[in-house]
Amino acid sequence: MKVLTSTFRLAAMGLALGAALPALAGPDDTLLAARDAYRANDLARLAQLGDSLPASYPLKDYPAYWLAWKALDRNDDVEVMRFLARAPGGLMAERIRNEWVKKLGQRENWTSFAEEWKKLPEEGRDEESGCYGQLMLLRQGQKPDNLDRFLEGKSAPDGCNRLIEGAYARSLIDQDWLWRRTRLLLAGNFVSQARQLAADTQLPLDNAALNKPAYANLATPGGQEAVLYDIVRKGKTDLDGAASALLRAAPEMTPDRRGFGWGQLALLSARKQLAGQALQWFDKADPRQLTTEQWEWWARSALRLEQWTQLDGIIRRMPQAVSSRPAWRYWLARSLKQQGRPVEAAPLFSLASVGHSYYALLSLEELGNSLSASASKGTPGPDEVSQMRADPAIRRSLALLAVAEVYTKPEFRTDAQREWRWAMRGRDDMELLAAAEIARKEGFYDMAIYSAERTKEEHDFSLRYLTPYREITRKYAGQLDIDDAWVYGLIRQESRFITMARSGVGASGLMQLMPATAKWAAKKIGLTHFAVNDIDTNVQLGTWYLRYVLDNLSGNMVMATAAYNAGPGRARNWQADRPLDGTIYAETIPFSETRDYVQKVMANAAYYSSTFGHANISLKNRMGVVPAR
Fold first, then answer.
1. DSSP for 64-125?
2. Residue 373 burial by CB count (10 A; 0-12/13-18/19+): exposed, middle or buried?
3. What letter does residue 421 receive in the DSSP assignment?
4. Measured between alpha carbons, how far is 360 from 108 in angstroms, rounded to an integer?
């Protein structure tokens, strides 16, 4: 790693803020020094360093971009406008403008907001800036779109809370809607936001009773909400006790509150895989108040018990936005097939087979077709590749990637990813494939996959399913007699082949090994000294651990995949008391992250198997049958 001696020499020389800066080793060193100044809040030095960068340097606008972030913190609109005039297009301008419009909305500077809002593309708006945009339109007399999206039991940023308050003030939502939002916030333990919503809209929530539900007055709406909050909270540790409490309070509660309570306890029960109990409680729930998550777990509970007729009925009752998802089109078709109605199932399988996802592959197989990972009909030519490489956002992305790798600065890699994703917007298939090929050659594997996955008609599966480090992976998979397509499917999902990848919980390298797991595995195989991020070592330890969990979980690949993500104990706990179709086991995994992980790893493995020319094993056969616990 290069040492920025010039930066420290400046401090030692005691140069005045206005003095000329000594030359650093190169523009990358200057950029790093500017980043340090940004973090130290030394804005004068940050500006000077930025001014010293050559005009031809791809990252010359980044110091000014960092200054603009500081200006946003100070509500310095002049500095923000100066940056947007300097760099009117691109990711940096879009991110600054997105944050600026939120500041303008907070300050109710609607004139400036309207001017900047129209310059911000829809793809550049986050949830809160979108809410401020809707609030502006509301003030102009236009009705906001889909306010019911806030009835999903999630907290919301300030701009969205202000939109809700404004909609209520204009009678676009009623008090019943506000109670639904409030009780969902309480159920999700967003108590402060529930209190604030009630205060802002004069909703008679009993704050004292929330603190002491035992003293709540069930004759009042606020008292009922406090008791309901306490019941749902109790259900997280004592479902039977919570159900008994709900039964005692039910006669004094309104039907909508009773129905909400049963829906919440049903969800908790379903996520504990108490499917029979969950189905009974969902039957008592108020369907109008069910969130997307609750509808899906109602269906999963019927699926877990293979109650195909009941599953059919639940999916047909789902809101259209939920039932039209590929998962539920697939499972509705499966339920019809299991009920002996294959003619009705076929069109649904056909709809769900569009694309290359897990459900698309399963649906394709149900239609009697096998996986085909054929090459693209056309490939980008040298001119298309050169033109894409010359794109300013691509140049910035690759320059940031180089800084990240040369100086071991992962935060610059994050910036490189943002620039790359921005550059892919609106691209046609050949441009996307050209970009993917550039990223592959530069070792920017995650962005090669990102670009290749976005094509609509022309597909290159050698780019979608890259195989870097092939000899290393094949060697250790062969030594341990495990499917190298499965190993690649797992690595692709774990790290997208980023060798410096590090998760929020500390997992490292291609196979995202936790420090304790790596140390334990190394001891088992006799490695006394090792570096977990070394490619060879990481794959050696990761494949050994994968073999270990496979051997300890009945040789079942689906369970082993779940165990790699969530631990062997959980994978065992998720078994049923009877053999279970692997697709049902995967669908009813309580952790959404692990459920998605297992499905993607197994679909990846099917594609890699096809790419490697292995025996043609269908995804459904790969999923197999999970034995009884």
1. HHHHHHHHHHTT-HHHHHHHHHHS-SSHHHHHHHHHHHHHHHHTT-HHHHHHHHTTS-GGG-
2. middle
3. H
4. 47
Q: How does DSSP classify residue 252?
A: G
Give backbone dihedrals phi and psi of 121, rounded to 5 degrees, phi first: -65, 155
Could you tell me the maximum CA-CA distance found in the chain, to the nearest angstrom?
Answer: 85
Around Cβ 544, how many Cβ atoms within 10 Å?
A: 18
CA atoms within 13 A on the CB side of 457: 8
Query: Which residues are within 8 A (CB) of 234 and not within 5 positions of it... i.e. 6 or more apart?
Result: 241, 242, 245
Nearest to 9 by CA among 26, 27, 21: 21
**What per-residue confidence (pLDDT) applies to 162?**
97
Exactly one of 94, 99, 296, 494 is catalytic; which is it?
Answer: 494
Read off the amino acid at residue 512. Answer: Q
What count of residues does the chain have? 629
pLDDT band at residue 374, thresholds of 50, 70 and 90? Answer: low
Q: Which long-range contacts (CB under 8 A, 24 or more apart) does 546-551 make?
A: 546/480, 546/482, 546/486, 546/487, 546/490, 546/511, 547/480, 547/481, 547/482, 548/521, 548/524, 550/482
Containing 581, the helix (H) or strand (E) segment is: strand 580-581
Distance of alpha carbon 168 from alpha carbon 150, whole angstroms:
13
Long-range CB contacts (within 8 A, 24+) of 11-14 = none
List own/partner pairs for 116-121 with CB under 8 A and 24 or more apart. Answer: 120/94, 121/94
CA distance 372 to 368: 13
Specify the pLDDT at position 491.
97
Instruction: Quote the tokens at residue 51.
Output: 């001014």
Reported pTM: 0.92
Closest CA to 471 of 531, 375, 405, 535: 535
CA distance linking residue 536 with residue 474, whole number of Å: 11
- Annotated active-site residue 344? The verdict is no
In three-state form (DSSP H/G/I as H, E/B as E, the rest C), the secondary structure along 348-416 is: HHHHHCCCCCHHHHHHHHHCCCCCCCCCCCCCCCHHHHHHHHCCHHHHHHHHHHHHHHHCCCHHHHHHH
User: Residue 172 and residue 175: Cα distance in Å, rounded?
Assistant: 10
For 36-49, the pLDDT digits (tens) are 999 999 999 999 99
Other C-beta atoms within 10 Å of 474: how many?
16
